[in-house]
Amino acid sequence: MSARVYVNGTEGAWIPAHDRGLMYGDGLFETILFVDGVAPLWARHRARLETGAARLGFALPPTDAMLALAQQAGSGLVRAAVRITVTRGVGERGYAPPVPAIPNWVVAASSAPAVAPDWYARGIRVRCCSLRLAAQPLLAGLKHLNRLEQVLARAEWSDVEIAEGLLGDSVGR
């Protein structure tokens, strides 16, 4: 099944090219596992979205509406990976955030990737990446939209047997 995508509650809609999430990475996301229509860790995902929006200084769309749409998007899938993305919305050119911000939100659902059953028994292969993560305390613990460090780290290998990359901070921890 291909992904179902909704923007601001409308299926198949689009994000404006001047959206701050696209232009500057100004937003948040959560990828949520739904099993038979239930997201067992929803409370944690919601809390991280709320914390992130507060730290970045913009209001979230109603979380009940986002959850309901995420359930709808993942319906019919036994295991659905549903990503909720919230951006600050459209603003003028430049880094200054718009006041007031009118967030855009995207819900995209697809089948969750299969996890090999023997991973739990034998473990997985992990690569220690050479890329080091920068420290930014304000963003620590948030799933903000600027994931360029992770993209560059993942580009370090192409071996399909390696399941994950392990990244250190600027001093090697």
Describe this structure in words.
With 173 residues, the chain is an alpha+beta fold. Helices cover 24% and strands 28% of the residues. It contains five helices and seven strands; from the N terminus they run E-E-H-E-H-H-E-E-H-E-H-E. A five-stranded antiparallel β-sheet has the order 2-1-5-4-3. It has a two-stranded parallel ribbon with strand order 6-7. The longest helix has 15 residues. The termini are far apart. 22% of the residues are buried.
Please tell me what the overall shape is: globular
Largest sheet entry: 5 strands, antiparallel
Strand order of the biggest β-sheet: 2-1-5-4-3
- List how many beta strands DSSP finds: 7
> For the CA atoms, what is the radius of gyration?
17 Å
Terminal CA distance: 40 Å
Topology order in helix (H) and strand (E) letters? EEHEHHEEHEHE
The computed structural class is: alpha+beta
User: Into which percentage range does the β-strand content fall?
Assistant: 25-35%
Count of helical stretches: 5
- Helix content range: 10-25%
Low confidence ranges: none
Mean pLDDT: 93
